[in-house]
């Protein structure tokens, strides 16, 4: 069953001058994670805001858990959780106060709201900071608290808009852990991200969007296949480069390429780890010690480049120049 | 019932916010108290009122009204803050009554006014303000002031939701409230103003409010009338009318703005 469906969504801002969504189609299967991947300004926040009833589309329609978001927003709000792009919590209040207040707004009653707040603080490792105002929290703690606030009543569908933007690598890892836990619990999740790696880590399914349209859709693996298969990569000492190229070419069946500066030898392979093992064995009997060896799958950066003809990063620069 | 509960929780949030930043409360009371002292002792001596008890009797209603008029700015900047932090998005995505956030905010700001008015009343008493109309009328006067603040708070909702930036909100509110409070009978007789301004001052809701409060606190409204006009003859009715008009216009406008604020 599809828990989220968006059909032909169009949304313009500034009296039609900015076309944020341009006929966007999406769906999320129940109990799965869809990552909406796109550069700045692609329309990620706009989709999330439409699906969470905060914004009305100009045209097209959307359903969440079978409920129409335009005609029946009150019902939709009862089944969703939202953690927006910027952590939306009261800075001055403590983490505990925030969660209790949201619990009461979900009509849990004071007692239940307190119990739930403490549970969530514990679960997101915020118990120690519970009685401190949010303004003393780190970016990662804020994000976690914001996420906690969207989970007070277990939502059927959770929307996370760029949950790790602005976090340092450690904060990002923590957030990923938290999200993976949630997913195990069976929630249907739509998350947006600019990080290709993040989509790869968290999502069952990826929708790549650019200028308000989905330009590719599929599993991370399928998207990567679209761009090309795996590559074998070996780094060796300078004196072994020539011999290693021979070995790799033989195993691959294609002529190996060389990056001279890095002494990196690469070749496409179709047999994955078998090819890797063969190369290691041959290197070993030739008495060559590889400094680095591995199978590399194309990154989602490569995917973006192949799909749009530009990388996500270049796109951002262009946008900023225009502004 | 659920809606009432939602409003109650948001109003409480407002008070919780206040209790966590007592500076807000302190500064919202210091400023009007400062005004009381400044006007009482700096201008008080040079304005001949002919009233028993002197200038301070006329001044206090003026300062009360000015203070509640600034509720507009308080509500507006509070909402602009919430909007900036994305809090409004969060509230709007909750299964709660959609107007609860706005109504709760206006009620919270009115509760703050109760405290501020009480402190000012005490400060006024200390410097010689003696309302002489009996407890019932005095209470009615304060109720009037609270209502006026509440009505203006709804204008503040619209200003807060319309502005793009919290600083803009401050400036806009200032530009709206300052001329209104000074082009009035609040601090000096309107009879000294140029003719055109006198008309404005007479019909200005701040003036009618001040006149109404003076009446309720047991004073003759000597600053008002330029030509026995309706508002200066009937300040209570006129003020009530203004409040109703403000609410009738701004409550629906503000609620609509809130529902579509991102469009
Ligand atoms: N309120 C608004 N008024 C005018 N234009 C807007 C508004 N909100 C978004 N836009 C424009 O619509 C387009 C899509 O914006 P959106 O916020 O959905 O992008 P995004 O993918 O979330 O970007 P980011 O990664 O920067 O968060 C952008 O070009 C943006 O400038
Ligand atoms: Mg965004």
From TrEMBL, chain A:
Family: Belongs to the ABC transporter superfamily. Drug exporter-1 (DrugE1) (TC 3.A.1.105) family.
Origin organism lineage: unclassified sequences, metagenomes, ecological metagenomes
Name assigned to this protein: Unannotated protein
Any Gene Ontology CC annotation: plasma membrane
Primary residence: membrane
Subcellular location: Cell membrane
Gene Ontology MF: a single term: ATP binding
UniProt GO BP: daunorubicin transport; doxorubicin transport
Annotated SUPFAM superfamilies: P-loop containing nucleoside triphosphate hydrolases (SSF52540)
Membrane association type: Peripheral membrane protein
Keywords: ATP-binding, Cell membrane, Membrane, Nucleotide-binding, Translocase, Transport
Gene3D superfamilies: P-loop containing nucleotide triphosphate hydrolases (3.40.50.300)
Annotated PANTHER family: ABC TRANSPORTER ATP-BINDING PROTEIN (PTHR42711), DOXORUBICIN RESISTANCE ATP-BINDING PROTEIN DRRA (PTHR42711:SF19)
Domain ABC transporter intervals: 4-236
From TrEMBL, chain B:
InterPro entries, per the entry: ABC2_TM, ABC2_TM_bact-type, ABC_2_transport, Nod_factor_ABC_transporter
The species this protein was found in: freshwater metagenome
Membrane listed as a keyword: yes
Residues passing through the membrane, by range: 21-43, 55-79, 100-126, 138-161, 168-188, 236-255
Protein name: Unannotated protein
Keyword Translocase: no
Taxonomy of the source species: unclassified sequences, metagenomes, ecological metagenomes
GO cellular component, one term: ATP-binding cassette (ABC) transporter complex
Annotated membrane topology: Multi-pass membrane protein
């Amino acid at each position: 069953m599809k828990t989220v469906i968006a059909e032909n969504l169009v949304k313009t801002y500034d009296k039609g001058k900015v076309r944020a969504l341009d006929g966007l189609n999406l769906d999320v299967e129940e109990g799965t994670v869809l990552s909406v991947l796109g550069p700045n300004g692609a329309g990620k926040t706009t989709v999330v805001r439409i699906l969470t009833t905060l914004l009305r589309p100009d045209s097209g329609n959307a359903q969440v858990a079978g409920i129409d978001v335009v005609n029946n927003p009150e019902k939709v709000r009862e089944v969703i959780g939202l953690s927006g792009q910027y952590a939306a919590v009261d800075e001055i209040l403590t983490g505990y106060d925030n969660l209790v207040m949201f619990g009461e707004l979900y009509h849990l009653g004071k007692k239940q709201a307190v119990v739930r707040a403490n549970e969530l603080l514990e679960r997101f490792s915020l118990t120690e900071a519970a009685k401190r105002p949010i303004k003393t929290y780190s970016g990662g703690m804020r994000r976690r608290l914001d996420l906690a606030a969207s989970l007070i009543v277990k939502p059927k569908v959770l929307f996370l808009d760029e949950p790790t933007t602005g976090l340092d690598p450690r904060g990002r890892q923590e957030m990923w852990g938290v999200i993976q836990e949630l997913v195990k619990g069976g929630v249907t999740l739509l998350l947006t991200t600019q990080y290709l790696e993040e989509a790869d880590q968290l999502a069952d399914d990826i929708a790549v969007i650019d200028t308000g349209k989905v330009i590719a859709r599929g599993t991370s693996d399928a998207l990567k296949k679209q761009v090309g298969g795996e590559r074998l990569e070996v780094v060796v000492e300078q004196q072994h480069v020539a011999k290693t190229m021979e070995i790799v070419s033989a195993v691959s069946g294609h002529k190996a390429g060389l990056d001279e500066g890095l002494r990196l030898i690469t070749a496409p392979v179709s047999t994955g780890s078998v090819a890797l093992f063969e190369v290691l064995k041959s290197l070993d009997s030739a008495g060559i010690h590889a400094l680095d060896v591995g199978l590399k799958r194309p990154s989602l950066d490569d995917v973006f480049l192949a799909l749009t003809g530009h990388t996500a990063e270049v796109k951002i620069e262009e946008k900023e120049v225009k502004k | 019932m659920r809606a009432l509960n939602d409003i109650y929780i948001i109003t409480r949030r407002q008070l919780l916010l206040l209790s966590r930043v007592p500076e807000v409360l302190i500064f919202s009371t210091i400023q009007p108290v400062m005004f009381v002292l400044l006007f009482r002792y700096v201008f008080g001596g040079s304005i001949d009122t002919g009233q028993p008890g002197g200038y301070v009797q006329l001044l206090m209603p003026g300062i009360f009204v000015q203070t509640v008029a600034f509720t507009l700015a308080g509500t507006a900047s509070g909402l602009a803050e919430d909007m900036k932090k994305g809090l409004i998005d969060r509230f709007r995505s909750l299964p709660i009554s959609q107007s609860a956030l706005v109504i709760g905010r206006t009620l919270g700001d009115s509760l703050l006014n109760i405290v501020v008015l009480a402190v000012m009343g005490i400060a006024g008493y200390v410097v010689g303000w003696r309302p002489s109309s009996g407890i019932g009328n005095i209470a009615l006067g304060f109720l009037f002031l609270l209502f006026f603040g509440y009505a203006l708070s709804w204008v503040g909702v619209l200003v807060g939701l319309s502005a793009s930036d919290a600083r803009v909100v401050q400036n806009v509110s200032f530009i709206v409230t300052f001329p209104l409070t000074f082009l009035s009978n609040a601090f000096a007789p309107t009879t000294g103003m140029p003719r055109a301004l006198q008309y404005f001052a007479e019909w200005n809701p701040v003036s009618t409010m001040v006149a109404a409060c003076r009446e309720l606190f047991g004073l003759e409204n000597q600053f008002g009338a330029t030509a026995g006009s309706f508002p200066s003859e009937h300040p209570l009715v006129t003020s009530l009318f203004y409040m109703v008009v403000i609410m009738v216009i701004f409550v629906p406008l503000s609620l609509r703005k809130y529902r579509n604020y991102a469009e």
